Amino acid sequence: AGLAPELVSRLNIEATRIAGSAEMRERLANDGAEPATPPMTQREFAAFIETDAARWARVIKLSGAKAE
User: Which residues contact 16 (CB under 8 A, 6 or more apart)?
Assistant: First the structure.
């Protein structure tokens, strides 16, 4: 939040490039993960984070888990 749009765009371009590299794909595969295909746009990623945060907040609330 608060980053200049040009910086956000540049970070998105570089993260997409890195995530698509053979080395990163191999590292992710070794951990049982894979990058989104096709890569998410900035707007899609923001929506994903918002939805995921809400989902996990609900799970945490329902479980009664507390940070120590």
Answer: 39
Residue 1 has pLDDT above 90, yes or no: no
CA atoms within 13 A on the CB side of 28: 12
End-to-end CA distance of the chain: 27
Cβ-Cβ contacts under 8 Å for 34 (sequence gap 6 or more): 25, 28
42-52 per-position pLDDT tens digit: 889 889 999 99
Between CA 8 and CA 2 the distance in angstroms is 10
Q: Is the pTM of this model over 0.90?
A: no
